[in-house]
Amino acid sequence: MNTIRRKAPKSFQTERLCLRAPLKEGDGLIIHQAIIASIQELKPWLPFVQNTPTKDETERSWQTAYQKFIEKDYFRYLIFTKERNEFIGVASFENLDWHIPKCEIGYWINTKYSGNGYMTETVQELITIGINQMKFNRIDIRCESTNVKRRAIPEKLELNLEGILKNEDRAADGSKLTDTCIYSITP
User: Fold this and answer.
1) What is the pLDDT of residues 153-175, one digit of tens each?
2) How far is the C-alpha of 61 from the C-alpha of 47, rounded, in Å?
3) Which of 160, 167, 123 is nearest to 145 (CA)?
């Protein structure tokens, strides 16, 4: 079966935010600073921060992210405020399956910017782009059942909670089995 790998926009805007692909020198440094500032809030949920990454590791990770963007394997975006051009977090189309086509949306935010609706605004725009431009037939948001803040976004956006998979994954630190919520939207 011949599949079409569609291009994602390299940048786009919402009412209060600018999002762009990781393509500028120094992106790794601003991402690293946000990870360090938010490590206590991110650590329970994200495997990549179980051991604090170095600046070089973060920079290499984002160089890889840009290469994957070009190859259409996944699309990560850096999120900045329009007003002050402050870096606030990351959102992505990931786990793409171009045969369907479908994807998951992933995201994290610098703690000092949480509670302002920025990530909800971001995810809403990703869904719009995913359905209208990328032509995804399915978009998922998956999260640990106890991650109340992450769950709040798909619930606010009225995505369908398809189910909670029991003992489906391991906690970010690998210490225990966790349940995974699967939210979805289809056009």
Assistant:
1) 999 999 999 999 999 999 999 99
2) 14
3) 167
Q: Is the pTM of this model over 0.90?
A: yes
The CA distance from 70 to 100, in Å, is: 20
For every residue of the chain, DSSP letters joined together read -----PPPPSEEE-SSEEEE-S-STTHHHHHHHHHHHHHHHHTTT-GGGSSPPPHHHHHHHHHHHHHHHHTTS-EEEEEEETTT--EEEEEEEEEEETTTTEEEEEEEE-GGGTTSSHHHHHHHHHHHHHHHTS--SEEEEEEETT-HHHHHHHHHTT-EEEEEEEEEEE-TTSSSEEEEEEEEE--
Q: In whole angstroms, what is the distance from residue 48 CA to residue 99 CA?
A: 28
Q: How far is Cα 35 from Cα 40, in angstroms, rounded to an integer?
A: 9
145 touches 178 (CB < 8 A): yes
What is the amino acid identity at position 102?
K
Please confirm whether the linkage preceding 101 is cis (ω < 30° from 0).
yes
Q: How far is Cα 7 from Cα 137, in angstroms, rounded to an integer?
A: 16
Contact 109, 74 (CB under 8 A): no
pLDDT tens profile 54-103: 888 888 888 888 888 889 999 999 999 999 999 999 999 999 999 999 99
User: Position 74: which residue type?
Assistant: Y
